[in-house]
């Protein structure tokens, strides 16, 4: 909503009162901890906060939450922001349907259910029945589904669950006819799904050894192994399919070909996109042991299986093609010299590929908006899927023999619609369209292009109420990520919708480090070139100010995980550009991140402080924890994390918040909001999502003295 002058004046009085609360931060003990990095001594006084099990750390968490809760409770924006967020979150949502064994499966949430419910039906016209309701697995909704795979005959359902947001999973098997679980139970699964053999007698999965006592949420994860579990047998009897005792970083993902005759093994060594590929025959659709045979283990590019047809393995790869291409590999002679290009690299980045109905459905990004092209089995381009508009489409899964597939379409102001696509005719039918309290007709999205410090051009998407006045007074929230080849594209989210309804402008930036323009774009924001990511994000903020969308008094930044690192870095480098900054579950200690859980796998994007002196200097130059500028006037900052985050351990945020509070960075609040019984974000129950994200918006609104009704 737009504010009248009298409303703005009133808001300033009320918000200033809340904003100017007398904040007394808990005193955080400083330890005499100094480490040497390539002959450089670096103090780490808050090292003790890395011990999440210590009584002192737990007391610190309690004390910090008390300060933050008191501040948030006094904000006049908190309750109306939560009401708006709840209202907009409360709508019926559907997942993308898929088929198996003559059944359709999809997820649904009636609006405010803590977790999505899985439904199944034999046809889209039948009344669906509940296949699995995760809300019955815990009283508070903190046990979430982490994976779901029906057997080929559609009679059994292998499913994974994760508790309190942890990455650790437990897998079980449900009989869909009785609704009861079998006795099978698989523990210590992480970063893995399940893949049934076609005979339905068992499935493949990957796991780690059980962690040492007290190290479940912080210990490093190495030496993943791929197993086959045969139904009705204990996990101790599972058959080891493959491992690498000589390289602790190898991990394995498994899928079974559509014809059931081949196990496709993705071998990964990091969170980067480069991987290896192996295959193992499954005679008559059964696991008969044997040693997987490599297709490639050079780890020089991305290799993603798309289909197996006519004795050929079709793979999406960026080998010698930074924007991606499709190649066919003869399984009898898989040497790279014999690979045949089916679809050559084009001007747009190929982000996904599937083989459905004897055709290839290839998804591309054109300036961060989705295009989907249809190619024949021989690679010839046949047509293009007509999407509803300029936005983001995903899905298009299925088998080579299927005649239909489903996809979702969304934009910054369009909630995800689910469509059915007939592969043969190209006909598109709407399956589900949500009804929300958000009136999209009142808003518009436009794509603009920003030029970064070194001349690189990238897109931003600006969502605002129609008739936006360019006077620099618009409360504006800028979101970014910039890492791990993950593209940031226009999608609907309740956070953006709530901010728009509160009268704000919402902006996303498709910056380097992501996958918007292919692997070269990604690599331009990694390791020694990571500063490009921060330069891009700062340039986006400067563009918004220069073009009078916002001003430094009305511009806030937000991002999570790698995006939390982004926000922490730009707040240090340009504290004058932003009024508020909210880094969520961020990687804040760039010198030690690799020592915890799966952090070592991020080295492909970041490098590590132990690599060499040059890499250490680059990391040290932007590490949010190590570059807080005492004496500079910082924006209001609220750090968010969770006590069960075993992806980016909360110690990152703990140490960063302690350092912020100890430094002289001006009068604006420096708070940390620590969620309990929650993790990095996946599977978080609805109630916690609403509470956390509405608090973030209220904090930003309070900083900008924005009245929220």
Fourth CATH level, the homologous superfamily of the largest domain: Alpha/Beta hydrolase fold, catalytic domain
- Residue fraction in strands: 25-35%
Number of domains: 3
| Largest sheet properties | 8 strands, mixed
The stretches of 5 or more residues where confidence is low (pLDDT under 50) are: 1-20
- Report the structural category: alpha+beta
Overall pLDDT metric: 95
Q: Radius of gyration over alpha carbons?
A: 25 Å
What form results from the Cα inertia axes? globular
Overall helicity: 10-25%
User: What is the name of the CATH topology of the largest domain?
Assistant: Rossmann fold
Count of helical segments? 11
CATH architecture of the largest domain: 3-Layer(aba) Sandwich
Distance between the termini: 9 Å
Number of strands: 39
For this structure, what is the CATH class of the largest domain? Alpha Beta
- The strand order across the widest sheet is 32-33-35-34-36-37-38-39
GO molecular function, one term: serine-type endopeptidase activity
InterPro entries: AB_hydrolase_fold (IPR029058), Pept_S9_AS (IPR002471), Pept_S9A_N (IPR023302), Peptidase_S9_cat (IPR001375), Peptidase_S9A (IPR002470), Prolyl_oligopep/macrocyclase (IPR051167)
Keywords: Hydrolase, Protease, Serine protease, Signal
Family: Belongs to the peptidase S9A family.
Secondary structure blueprint with pairings:
Blueprint: H1 5-19, E1 34-37, E2 40-43, H2 55-74, H3 78-89, E3 93-94, E4 98-100, E5 103-109, E6 117-121, E7 129-132, E8 143-150, E9 156-163, E10 169-175, E11 180-189, E12 195-196, E13 202-207, E14 225-230, E15 239-242, E16 251-256, E17 262-268, E18 275-281, E19 293-296, E20 303-309, E21 312-317, E22 325-330, E23 340-343, E24 349-356, E25 359-366, E26 369-375, E27 381-384, E28 392-395, E29 404-411, E30 414-422, E31 428-432, E32 443-451, E33 457-465, E34 476-479, H4 494-501, E35 505-509, H5 519-523, H6 531-546, E36 555-560, H7 562-573, E37 580-584, H8 603-606, H9 613-622, E38 636-642, H10 651-662, E39 670-675, H11 686-703
């Amino acid at each position: 909503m737009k504010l009248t002058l009298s409303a703005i004046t009133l808001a300033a009085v009320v918000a200033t009162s809340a904003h100017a609360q007398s904040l007394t931060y808990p005193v955080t003990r400083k330890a005499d901890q100094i480490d040497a990095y390539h002959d450089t001594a670096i103090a780490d006084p808050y090292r003790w906060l890395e011990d999440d099990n210590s009584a002192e750390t737990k007391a610190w968490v309690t004390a910090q939450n008390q300060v933050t809760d008191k501040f948030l409770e006094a904000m006049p924006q908190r309750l109306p922001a939560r009401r708006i967020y709840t209202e907009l979150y409360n709508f019926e949502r559907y997942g993308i349907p898929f088929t198996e064994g003559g059944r359709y499966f999809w997820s649904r949430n009636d609006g405010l259910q803590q977790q999505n419910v899985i439904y199944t039906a034999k046809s889209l016209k039948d009344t669906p029945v509940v296949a699995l309701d995760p809300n019955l697995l815990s009283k508070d909704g903190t046990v979430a589904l982490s994976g779901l795979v029906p057997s080929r005959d559609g009679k059994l359902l292998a499913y994974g669950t994760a508790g309190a947001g942890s990455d650790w999973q437990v897998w079980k098997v449900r009989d869909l006819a009785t609704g009861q679980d079998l006795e099978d139970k698989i523990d210590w699964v992480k970063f893995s799904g399940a893949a049934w053999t076609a005979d339905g007698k068992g499935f493949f999965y990957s796991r780690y050894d059980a962690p040492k006592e007290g190290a479940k949420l912080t210990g490093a994860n190495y030496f993943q192994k791929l197993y086959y579990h045969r139904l009705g047998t204990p996990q101790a009897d599972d058959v080891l399919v493959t491992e690498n005792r000589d390289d602790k970083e190898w991990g394995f993902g498994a899928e079974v070909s559509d014809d059931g005759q081949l196990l496709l093994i993705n071998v990964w060594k990091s969170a980067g996109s480069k991987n290896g590929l192996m295959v193992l025959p499954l005679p008559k659709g059964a696991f008969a042991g044997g040693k997987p045979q490599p297709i490639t283990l050079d780890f020089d590019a991305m290799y993603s299986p798309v289909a197996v047809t006519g004795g050929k393995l079709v793979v999406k790869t960026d080998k010698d093609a930074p924007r991606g291409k499709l190649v066919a590999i003869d399984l009898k002679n898989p040497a790279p010299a014999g690979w045949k290009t089916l679809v050559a690299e084009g001007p747009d980045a190929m982000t996904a590929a599937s083989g459905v109905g004897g055709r290839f459905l290839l998804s591309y990004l054109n300036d961060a908006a989705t295009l989907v092209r249809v190619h024949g089995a021989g690679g010839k381009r046949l047509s293009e899927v007509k999407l509803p508009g300029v936005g983001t489409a995903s899905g298009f899964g299925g088998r080579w023999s299927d005649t239909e597939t489903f996809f979702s379409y969304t934009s910054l102001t369009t909630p995800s619609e689910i469509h059915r696509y007939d592969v043969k005719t190209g006909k598109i039918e709407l399956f589900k369209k949500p009804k929300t309290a958000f009136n999209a007709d009142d808003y518009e999205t436009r794509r603009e292009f920003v030029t970064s410090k070194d001349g690189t051009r990238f897109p931003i998407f600006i969502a605002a109420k129609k008739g936006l006045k360019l006077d620099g007074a618009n409360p504006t929230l800028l979101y970014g990520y910039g890492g791990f080849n993950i593209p940031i594209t226009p999608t609907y989210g309740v956070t953006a919708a709530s901010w728009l309804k509160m009268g704000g402008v919402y902006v996303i930036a498709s910056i380097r480090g992501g996958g918007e323009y292919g692997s070269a774009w990604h690599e331009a924001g990694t390791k020694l070139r990571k500063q490009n990511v921060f330069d891009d994000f700062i340039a986006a903020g400067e563009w918004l100010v220069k073009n009078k969308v916002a001003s430094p008094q009305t511009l806030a930044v937000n991002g999570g995980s790698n995006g939390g690192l982004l926000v922490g870095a730009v707040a240090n480098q340009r504290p004058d550009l932003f009024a508020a900054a909210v880094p969520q579950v961020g990687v804040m200690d760039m010198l030690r991140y690799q020592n915890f859980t799966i952090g070592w796998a991020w080295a492909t994007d970041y490098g590590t402080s132990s690599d060499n002196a040059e890499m250490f200097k680059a990391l040290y130059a932007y590490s949010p924890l190590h570059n807080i500028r005492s004496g500079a006037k910082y924006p209001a900052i609220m750090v968010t994390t969770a006590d069960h985050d075993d992806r980016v351990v909360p110690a990152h945020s703990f140490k960063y918040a302690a350092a912020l509070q100890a430094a002289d960075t001006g009068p604006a609040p420096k708070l940390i909001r620590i969620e309990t019984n929650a993790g990095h974000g996946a599977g978080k129950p609805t109630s916690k999502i609403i509470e956390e994200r509405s608090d973030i918006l209220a904090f930003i609104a309070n900083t900008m003295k924005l009245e929220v009704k």
